[in-house]
Amino acid sequence: MIVWSGLCYAAAYVSPAKTDNIALFSLTTPFAIIANILFVLFWLFFSGKKWRSLLSVITLVLCSKVFLMVFGLNFFGSNDTAHHERTIKIMSWNVHGMGIFEKSDGKETARKIMNLIQAQDADIVCLPEFYTRKNDSMKPYAPTIIKQNGFMEYKFCFDNTLGHDIYLGTAIFSKFPIEGYHIYHLGTEWINIVQCDIRVPGDKMMRLFCVHMHSFDLSDADKNNIETMKQNLEVGGRWKSFVTKFNYAYRQRATEADTTAQILSHSQYPVIVCGDFNDLPGSYTYTTIRGDLKDAFLVKGKGIGRTYNELSPTIRIDQMLFDGKAFNVMGFKSISSQLSDHRPIIGCFEVQ
């Protein structure tokens, strides 16, 4: 148990670009925490050797820096995502192509996605995997989203194609003026981070970053195979192919995270970073990008905070990080929705 927890801790700080396999333990961090807690209870209440509970208690304390990144403990107190004076409401949602991958009625899925966005009434909306036409980034859905929500700014950065006529990428909609816009390539194919300098209430400038990091590139068949192997408790064999694929993705994201951290460190304005990190809290990607920033979920969220609808209920890979000196998070929530493989997250920030 101690060794397992130590490896989970190491996964948060050892670069996967330098050491293979260590990053895989970040997938198990929530289970290591739960196991340690169960061992504490077991030794205290079901064994005559109560002193052994100290082993797990000490492990939890020593690894607390990483373990506390996983669970939101805010079961009491306010969690206000409503609009107030000098607040900014931000929504981030990987919309998975706006229903374009649906086998039935993708347009109906897109309509429901747009209605959900409208219902949240956010000031800024960041949408990784947004779908546009190749020759016109306004088509087919941007005009409707702008009209429904009263957005004054729209930016789109493509990062992938689907056939000859479709672009997928990151869309940003804002009710506040965007006075600066920049796209940074993060060193691996298709992966960018989008920067917007936005003037917010109080006549302050903030720098918003939205990123969609390298994924594990799991096909539907891969996901079905993982579910089958989980149910049958298979080891070896097919798992080896996934380990190879996962290690490659971890190495890619390590490079992207290092570059992102450098970009953030040079910002002349207070930053908010959101998007699909494709990595869990307690991973090298998360800890490197987060640095000294605060996590809106950890300040106001509760429980695991699942944001990915498949594979495991422990997967929180969509993040919203912020400069705690410039902003105070008033509320945070993740909406349970099956319209995409990801769930939307919303944070409401007060300008200090």
Q: Would you mind describing this structure in some detail?
A:
This protein has 352 residues and is of the alpha+beta class. The protein folds into two domains: 67 residues; 265 residues, 4-Layer Sandwich (Deoxyribonuclease I, Chain A). It has ten helices and 14 strands. The strands form three sheets. A six-stranded mixed β-sheet has the order 4-5-3-2-14-13. The longest helix is centred in the last third of the chain and has 28 residues. The model has no long low-confidence stretch (mean pLDDT 91).
Topology, please?
Blueprint: H1 2-11, H2 29-45, H3 53-62, H4 64-67, E1 72-73, E2 87-92, H5 106-120, E3 124-133, H6 142-149, E4 153-162, E5 166-174, E6 178-185, E7 192-200, E8 204-212, H7 220-232, H8 238-265, E9 271-276, H9 284-290, E10 294-295, H10 296-300, E11 302-303, E12 318-322, E13 327-334, E14 345-351
Radius of gyration: 21 Å
Roughly what percent helix?
Answer: 25-40%
Say what oligomer this is. single chain
Estimate the strand proportion: 25-35%
**Overall 3D form:** globular
Give the ordered list of helices and strands: HHHHEEHEHEEEEEHHEHEHEEEE
Structural class: alpha+beta
Strand count, sense and barrel status of the largest sheet are: 6 strands, mixed
CATH class of the largest domain: Alpha Beta
The number of strands is: 14
Q: Look up the CATH topology of the largest domain.
A: Deoxyribonuclease I, Chain A
Domains counted in the coordinates: how many? 2
Distance between the termini: 43 Å
Name the strands of the widest sheet in spatial order.
4-5-3-2-14-13
Low-confidence stretches: none
In DSSP terms, counting alpha (H) and pi (I) runs of 4 or more, how many helices?
A: 10
The CATH superfamily of the largest domain bears the name Endonuclease/exonuclease/phosphatase
CATH architecture heading of the largest domain: 4-Layer Sandwich
Mean pLDDT: 91
